[in-house]
Design brief:
This protein is mostly helical. It has 8 helices and 6 strands. The strands form 2 sheets. Strands 1-3-2 form a 3-stranded antiparallel sheet.
Length: about 270
């Protein structure tokens, strides 16, 4: 009996121990679950913080970050475009803009012969005057565009559109006479009235151009030869000015106290700049 009683007691003790162990395991599992939850919460918070920091860093980088330094592209300089040479065709087109009848003798035949004499002399003279005036204006502009200072009547016979005139010699004489009526625009160079000096630019204006050029390039002393050699640089048409006109241009500058003669006979002068 005593032995049986002892066995029962031992069995009870073992049951208690088992219960305690199970309790300890349950508590441990509960604690472990809580620990895991705690860890998960902390991990979640840490992830959130890391995410926020990354976003802030991206924004800051977008604001502060400087663009990548790139080397400037190599600029290839092209040669300066050459000034287009003005052709005869270009000049003719320009003249036609003002004188629609020019170079069009087939469309405007009445412009290429002297108006017929009518019974009414006054009306005829007025018609001839208008015809000559239009042609004289054209001749003046033609000289200006083609840089002609002196025109010869017989040379004009071969030039367009003058070569389309009927009775060219008579027509050209009337036209040139009409232009020479104003001495500021033109004047005869010979008694035969075959050569005409056309002043499409006044000598005073040429003097201004010469003085301004000398001031810009720093020229102080020049000769007739210098003016000839440098004429194309001074202005279009300057290099072909008659020597007599060049002397008169310098006289104008001397008169206006912008130049002085060193030797008038040998054509040497100074600019007073």
């Amino acid at each position: 009996m005593a032995t049986l009683q002892r066995e029962r007691e031992e069995e009870e003790e073992n049951k208690e121990k088992i219960k305690e162990k199970e309790k300890d395991i349950s508590e441990l599992e509960a604690e472990a679950e809580k620990l895991v939850e705690t860890i998960d919460e902390k991990t979640k918070k840490i992830k959130e913080k890391v995410k926020i920091k990354k976003q802030k860093k991206v924004k800051t980088t977008q604001i502060v970050q400087k663009p990548p330094v790139t080397k400037p592209e190599k600029i290839i300089t092209k040669e300066k475009a050459k000034v287009k040479e003005i052709t005869e065709e270009d000049i003719i087109k320009k003249l036609i803009q003002t004188y629609k009848w020019a170079y069009k003798e087939n469309l405007y035949p009445w412009m290429y012969f002297i108006p017929d004499k009518k019974k009414d002399k006054d009306a005829w003279e007025e018609e001839v005057e208008l015809w000559a005036s239009e042609w004289a204006n054209f001749l003046f502009d033609w000289c200006k565009e083609f840089l002609q200072h002196i025109v010869d009547k017989y040379d004009l016979h071969t030039k367009k559109p003058f070569n389309a005139l009927e009775d060219r010699e008579t027509c050209l004489q009337i036209i040139m006479d009409h232009l020479a009526e104003d001495s500021k625009l033109a004047k005869w160079l010979n008694d035969e009235k075959t050569r005409l000096r056309v002043f499409w630019q006044s000598l005073d204006k040429w003097g201004d151009i010469l003085y301004d050029w000398a001031f810009l390039v720093g020229e102080e002393r020049l000769t007739l030869l210098d003016l000839r050699e440098m004429g194309a640089d001074i202005a279009k048409g300057f290099e072909t000015l008659p020597a007599k006109d060049l002397r008169e241009i310098v006289n104008i500058l001397v008169k206006n106290k912008r130049a002085s003669w060193i030797d008038k006979k040998s054509f040497k002068f100074n600019f007073d700049i």
